[in-house]
């Protein structure tokens, strides 16, 4: 009987898997309402600048200067930044799952995410992601941005694990397809229970109360 190849490394997205998205269209809609901004204009300016910010080529202050503070506002940059950061919320079950998997299976965990530097730093610190993540392949650090396949190639180089021993958890179908095209086994995350079941089928039972036997 052919032995299953053990999984040694887990690639994880952050936004949509471990945490809510940092600054998605829902958060921007709330910001426009809260600060009484013209949403369509803000969204257009956002779309022109956000990829550049996430790739680490704009600071948050530069991004805000282009998207919000290109004219005088009745609120401060500090107030707007606090609102932005407050949009990030954890998915405790998924954070606990990653922590259990790391402990139970001795996994190396690598985050592969599109995040701007200041938001990324805040989210890592606020939710203690560095307590279980071994490396952060964040777009702002590596100047590569999903769906560019090179961000996965870089993650593979840094992880130094055979590709057959890696599983990737991602909530965006296109990004799953790109990773699988490179040979990375991937789990399309839609909810905690189904992800637990898919991981168990790949040889990564988590040992929690809801784990698949």
What is shown here, in short?
The protein has helices spanning 25-35, 39-54, 60-67, 77-86, 92-105, 117-126, 139-142, 150-159, 173-181, 192-201, and strands at 9-12, 108-113, 135-138, 166-170, 185-188.
Uncertain runs are 209-213
What is the count of distinct domains? Answer: 2
- Under CATH at level 1, the class of the largest domain stands as Alpha Beta
Main sheet characteristics:
5 strands, parallel
**How many E strands?**
5
Order of helices and strands: EHHHHHEHEHHEHEH
In helices, the fraction of residues equals 40-55%
**How much beta, percentage-wise?**
5-15%
User: Helix/strand-derived class?
Assistant: alpha/beta
Overall average residue pLDDT: 95
CATH architecture tag of the largest domain: 3-Layer(aba) Sandwich
Rg over CA atoms, rounded to whole Å, is 18 Å
Instruction: State the shape.
Output: elongated
Biggest sheet, spatial arrangement of strands: 3-2-1-4-5
- CATH-assigned homologous superfamily of the largest domain: HAD superfamily/HAD-like
- How many separate helices? 10
CATH topology of the largest domain: Rossmann fold
Gap from first CA to last CA: 21 Å
Description of the molecule:
The structure is a single chain. The chain is an alpha/beta fold and 213 residues long. The protein is built from ten helices and five strands; from the N terminus they run E-H-H-H-H-H-E-H-E-H-H-E-H-E-H. It has helices at 25-35, 39-54, 60-67, 77-86, 92-105, 117-126, 139-142, 150-159, 173-181, 192-201; strands at residues 9-12, 108-113, 135-138, 166-170, 185-188. A five-stranded parallel β-sheet has the order 3-2-1-4-5, sandwiched between helices. The chain is elongated, with a radius of gyration of 18 Å. Residues 209-213 have low confidence and may be disordered.
């Amino acid at each position: 009987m052919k032995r299953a190849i053990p999984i040694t490394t887990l690639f994880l997205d952050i936004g949509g898997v471990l945490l809510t998205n940092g600054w998605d269209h829902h958060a921007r809609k709330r910001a426009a309402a809260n600060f009484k901004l013209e949403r369509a204009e803000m969204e257009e300016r956002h779309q022109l600048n956000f990829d550049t910010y996430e790739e680490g080529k704009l600071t948050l202050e530069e991004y805000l200067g282009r998207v919000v503070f290109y004219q005088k506002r009745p609120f401060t940059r500090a107030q707007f930044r606090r609102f932005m950061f407050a949009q990030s919320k954890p998915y405790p079950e998924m954070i606990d799952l990653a922590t259990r998997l790391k402990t139970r299976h001795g996994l190396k965990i690598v985050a592969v995410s599109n995040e701007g530097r200041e938001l990324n730093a805040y989210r890592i610190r606020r939710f203690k992601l560095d307590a279980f993540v071994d490396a952060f392949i964040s777009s702002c650090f590596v100047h590569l941005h999903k769906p560019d396949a090179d961000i996965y190639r870089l993650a593979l180089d840094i992880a130094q694990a055979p590709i057959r021993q890696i599983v990737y958890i991602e909530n965006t179908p296109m990004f799953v397809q790109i990773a699988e095209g490179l040979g990375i086994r991937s789990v399309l995350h839609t909810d905690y229970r189904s992800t637990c079941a898919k991981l168990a089928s790949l040889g990564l039972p988590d040992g929690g109360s809801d784990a698949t036997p």
